[in-house]
Structure of N-acetyltransferase domain-containing protein:
Amino acid sequence: MSEPTVDIRPVTENDAADLLTLLEDLKKESTTFTADPALAHLSVKEEAAQLRVMISSPQNHLMVADYGGQLIGVASIIAKNETVGEIGVAILKSYWNEGLGSALMEEMLYWAKTASSLTNIVLTVQLENTYAKRLYSNLGFKVTHSDSVVNAVGDEVPAQEMTLTVHHGRQA
């Protein structure tokens, strides 16, 4: 029997329970990962309904890293408006430094460039997350604003907003 491989794939409604578990695990592992507090109390049925909406949206996208049936990472692009989407990515700590964050980011940016009409992708990175900041810079993101954010444990920490142009004013 062969070793399982990591599959980077779009989310499905059937991922609802596993995705809720992954999001809870990610919140416990890192102060740089924050999720919408409203998601914390969703039932599996409610999460599946949210995923159905996400999957049918041309401006929002969600992908997961699946290792032998276990979700170990997630990435999202959520439209802030008609032209700007905010990207986020998170990997379980035991799978860090294996290129999964890069793989998820590259897949998400490919989607943004080829399947969306978004012109810019933005993100906020906490400065203490040096690995992520380096990854985003290597992918072409440029710092557009420096500020502070409140991390997952309630501390105010320095952060930067970074932006990547994916379409130059044309519609996909």
